[in-house]
Design brief:
It is built from three helices and two strands, in the order E-E-H-H-H. The chain is of the alpha+beta class.
């Protein structure tokens, strides 16, 4: 699940910003670790992982290369659809 930095509500058919959320590196790393653990089963020896899933998992590992936690959250990789 990607990290979202904004919360919205709808009012009179308009999308209204409620608040902008700021993340710490600890929060980003915790979410990254959860996402990696949820996809570990795709990396077992007797299974061939698609390139899309390899790329996704690599993007999760590289997430801390962004200059700050908020930028990392804004560029959170999207998991590929199941094959």
């Amino acid at each position: 699940m990607p990290l979202s930095r904004v919360r919205h509500t709808h009012s009179a058919g308009q999308d209204v910003l409620i608040e902008e959320i700021h993340y710490t590196w600890e929060e980003v790393r915790v979410q990254r670790d959860i996402e990696l653990k949820l996809t570990d089963w795709r990396a077992v020896k007797d299974r061939t992982m698609s390139q899309a899933w390899k790329d996704y998992r690599q993007a999760l590992r590289d997430i801390t290369e962004h200059p700050d936690a908020d930028t990392a959250a804004d560029h959170w990789p999207e998991a590929p659809s199941d094959e």
